Amino acid sequence: MIEDIEISELRNLCQIVKEKYNYDFNNYAMSSFKRRVLRVLEIHKISSTLALIEKIKYDAAFFKVFLNEITVNVTEMFRDPSLWRDLRDKILPNLFSTHETIKIWHAGCSSGEEVYSMCILLKEMGLLHKVKIYATDIDEPILAKAKEGKYTIKNMIDVNEKNYIRLGGIQKLSDYYTETSGGFVKMNPSLVENVVYRSHDLVKSGVFNKFDLILCRNVLIYFNQQLQNDVFKMFHESLFNYSYFIIGSKETLIWSDVASKFIIVNSEEKVFKKVKE
Amino acid sequence: MKLDQVSIDKSQYKAVVIGGSAGSFQIITKILSEINPKFDLPIFMALHRLKHVRNGFIEALALKSNKIIAEPEDKEQIKRGMVYLAPANYHMYIELGNKIALSTEEMLNNSRPSIDLTFDTASYVYKNKIIGIILSGANKDGAWGMKKLKERGGLTIIQDPKDCTIDTMPTAALNITKIDLVLNPDNIVKFLNSLV
Ligand SMILES: C[S@@+](CC[C@H](N)C(=O)[O-])C[C@H]1O[C@@H](n2cnc3c(N)ncnc32)[C@H](O)[C@@H]1O
């Protein structure tokens, strides 16, 4: 097993990926990116970074697999229940007090759990038909999973349902899915009728619409600060004035160039509001 | 080796990394309450904790602490004299450029935060200028990280298995890597204070 990779090797890898496939990992955070590359080497029994570079160069199908494995897709429904409570009790009511309909963007939606969480919350508030949701990710296989809405029963019960109960959900989470074979559940498709899933790379794709609420949680932690700063600018541009921006509970934008254009609405849950164009 | 037998150049160290799990709360609070307030190396702590309980743990540790203890935000600048605690449900990595990074990657040894990953990334950055300490715990998390830390020239310390509530963790480290110091809780504190 290879235990370490030189930074220069990672640079070479990023260079090839950029030239051949136009994805730029140069400004990903070093420790986690290195770990992901080590993981790819281990899973595919590739003997060196050099061999990986060669394989990526000539094998476009393998590159898709690489892209899927290099990204961290771990997610939960209602992750940080206290945030979801804040959404239910304050943020969404606030938005709907001035809007008939709203547009939401889940950037880096992974396998879609966060999107289902939002739709379940909106449904319980009787507002699901008043939203349009865009759910995007760089990783197409994971988007396909999100669209499918198929999750393991184990995760549903061990993680998602517990979060739902902590949030104080008014139904049973099992009301929103049916069990299928092989230990899986299928989420109720009517929940996501107003959701558009799209591949979108935060590094290069830029603004594509304007939103009343953007969630980008546990995605930017995989970027370095320079890239985070660029992406914060792009999110700022993608928001209407007086609309909301939510990042992960351990992330912050207070040091970024756009910091002065936001106010902090909830410092624990990292809810920001755009107040300046 | 015994504490009074060590002759190491203590001025070379720039950081301390501590891993603990079941049965380590007591010794952690002891370290924090008895450490010299002038101790000015950053201390990184990866402790196994309930994944969904975000609040309470740090407050409990801070109660009698001589040092300021914080759960870092992603890309937070590392400051001298601070104690950094890995947040619930995140791995904590030490990055080049004096920053801390967080990650939601898969659990390792059933743990997130993973002690192995904090030890690995911290020793990658600090090389031979780091001290790793493994405390009481019920699984083998930390053993691999300790091995990496030793390979990179760091100083390895474990809580004496005899004094541990659960000795699986320090013993696992001892089994795969050379441990420089096996210390009881009093001597761990004494050793740290001798660095001031
Ligand atoms: C840990 S998941 C976050 C899922 C969810 N938001 C949560 O907090 O549980 C991170 C996601 O970010 C995606 N991602 C990584 N780099 C990206 C990029 N450049 N553009 C868009 N998405 C990206 C990954 O594919 C992954 O699905």
Walk me through the structure.
The complex is a heterodimer of chains A (277) and B (196). Helix content of chain A is 43%, strand content 19%. Chain A is an alpha/beta fold and 277 residues long. Chain A is globular and about 55 Å long. In chain A, helix 5 crosses helix 8 (153-167). In chain A, the strands form two sheets. A seven-stranded mixed beta sheet of chain A has the order 6-2-1-7-8-10-9. A three-stranded antiparallel beta sheet of chain A has the order 3-5-4. The model of chain A has no long low-confidence stretch (mean pLDDT 97). In chain A, a hairpin with a 4-residue loop joins strand 4 (177-179) and strand 5 (184-187). Chain A has two domains: 7-70, no CATH class; 81-274, Vaccinia Virus protein VP39 (Rossmann fold, 3-Layer(aba) Sandwich). Chain B has 196 residues and is of the alpha/beta class. Chain B has one domain (11-194): Rossmann fold (3-Layer(aba) Sandwich). Helices cover 29% and strands 21% of the residues of chain B. Chain B has six helices and ten strands; from the N terminus they run E-H-E-H-E-E-E-E-E-H-E-H-E-H-E-H. Chain B has a seven-stranded parallel beta sheet. In chain B, strand 6 (91-95) and strand 7 (99-103) form a beta hairpin. In chain B, helix 3 (115-126) packs parallel to helix 4 and helix 4 runs parallel beside helix 5 (168-176). Chain B is globular and about 45 Å long. The relative contact order of chain B is 0.20. The model of chain B has no long low-confidence stretch (mean pLDDT 94). The chains are: A alpha/beta (277), B alpha/beta (196). The complex binds S-adenosylmethionine (SAM). The site of S-adenosylmethionine has 22 residues of chain A, from loops.
